[in-house]
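Consider the tokenized backbone below.
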């Protein structure tokens, strides 16, 4: 493919809208495939590939998607998190406190709701973490599509919240869903990470060094029993994300620029293709709203995330010195709280990890994730459109120039001649813009 076309495609894949649309398309394709030809879909998932090595890398395509492709996604998430710590909202405690509290409450309350829903004899408490995650790609994609006039501070709040949410999800996966730890493999994986850090700190360059090393670190982490995506986020956090000297980009920014199209255009959509294929029928949908585990997931995403994020932020602003960004209103925050209930990628992954021995239950959990995420997406889109229309109207009012003098009318409402009606308003040469001293005509 010629260079201009390649550049255009990779630039498009870096945008939040395109990444979100691709993820949605592949998820829909998975649903269609799984419901029209379930046997072929299952056979593709179970097809094994990879070397028969001591590290047990002869894996099914489903396992490669869960453990391998998502490691790329978490690598990019790790870089984003590091960048937030050194140059973003998490750099200063005063700016970080509200989105961090929102993220923590947005993880805790869905887990509590799920646990309550599954506290009875027919419940499945091991899935408590499924509704705790926010999908960055989907959430930012929806915001980018419907939020043309929304304040930029709203995106910054959502991005910071989602990045912290991802960090908590990684910790949950590492602590609660890692079994049979092999410490020799885990120790060698940490040694590889230390070598990765040392080479990077010394300024050693060359993808031919880092890519094989990254694969070895990932393979050892996978063999250790700790979920392999932890290796991805660890390597992302190691990268330097601040500029030194006359650098135009930090190494972290440069590598994220290169890897993001791979993550958004291949890794995450293919994971969705292998993870979102659940059988949808009348009875399956009925189970989503009648069985403890699925209904706990739906309620956790729709009510738990919204209430946790919005309520946690309000309580922090009410009882601490933390303040909501002056560009935002509580109506904006409520809309983005609903949007954060879209828990797609990581929630699907945790559904697999929570019920490894019960494929039917894992499928019901995935169906609940899809239903809950869809409900949150539809409701959030409606709320964000209302807020977008509100801000669009404000912009129109601020830019209105009824008399065509080149000065927005909002700046002239204190002028008695202007208030007297269009026929009595002075011409452009006779009027002064607000705050301009007499004798200094408008340019």
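A designed sequence for it:
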């Amino acid at each position: 493919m010629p260079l201009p076309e390649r550049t255009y495609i990779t630039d498009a894949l870096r945008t939040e809208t395109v990444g979100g649309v691709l993820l949605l398309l592949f998820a829909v394709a998975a649903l269609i495939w799984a419901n029209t030809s379930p046997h072929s879909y299952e056979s593709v998932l179970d097809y094994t590939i990879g070397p028969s090595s001591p590290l047990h890398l002869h894996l099914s395509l489903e396992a490669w998607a869960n453990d391998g492709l998502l490691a790329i996604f978490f690598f990019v998430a790790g870089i984003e998190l590091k960048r937030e710590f050194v140059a973003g909202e998490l750099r200063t405690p005063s700016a970080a406190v509200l989105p961090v509290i929102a993220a923590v409450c947005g993880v805790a309350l869905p887990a509590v709701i799920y646990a309550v829903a599954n506290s009875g004899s027919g419940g499945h408490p091991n899935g408590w973490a499924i509704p705790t995650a926010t999908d960055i790609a989907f959430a930012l994609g929806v915001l980018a599509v419907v939020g043309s006039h929304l304040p930029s501070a709203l995106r910054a709040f959502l991005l910071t919240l989602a990045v912290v949410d991802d960090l908590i999800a990684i910790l949950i996966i590492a602590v609660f869903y890692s079994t049979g730890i092999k410490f020799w493999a885990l120790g060698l994986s940490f040694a590889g990470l230390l070598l990765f850090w040392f080479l990077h700190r010394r300024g050693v360059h060359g993808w031919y060094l880092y890519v094989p090393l990254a694969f070895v670190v990932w393979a050892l982490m996978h063999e250790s029993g700790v979920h392999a995506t932890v290796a991805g986020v660890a390597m992302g956090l190691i990268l330097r994300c601040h500029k030194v000297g006359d650098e135009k980009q930090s190494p972290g920014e440069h590598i994220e620029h290169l890897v993001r199209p791979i993550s958004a255009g291949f890794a995450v959509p293919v994971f969705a293709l292998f993870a979102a294929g659940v059988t949808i029928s009348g009875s399956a949908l009925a189970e989503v709203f009648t069985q403890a585990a699925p209904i706990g997931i739906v309620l956790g995403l729709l009510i738990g995330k919204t209430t946790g994020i919005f309520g946690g932020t309000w309580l922090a602003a009410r009882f601490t010195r933390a303040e909501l960004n002056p560009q935002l209103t509580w109506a904006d925050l409520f809309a983005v709280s609903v949007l954060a209930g879209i828990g797609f990628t990581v929630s699907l992954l945790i559904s697999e990890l929570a019920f490894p021995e019960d494929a039917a239950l894992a499928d019901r959990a995935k169906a609940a994730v899809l239903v809950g995420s869809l409900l949150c997406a539809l409701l959030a889109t409606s709320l964000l459109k209302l807020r977008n229309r509100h801000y669009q109207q404000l912009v129109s009012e601020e830019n209105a120039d009824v008399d065509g003098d080149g000065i927005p009318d909002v700046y002239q409402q204190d002028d008695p001649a202007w208030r007297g009606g269009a026929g009595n308003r002075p011409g452009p040469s006779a009027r002064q813009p607000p705050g301009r001293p007499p004798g200094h005509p408008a340019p």
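The longest helix spans residues 359-399.
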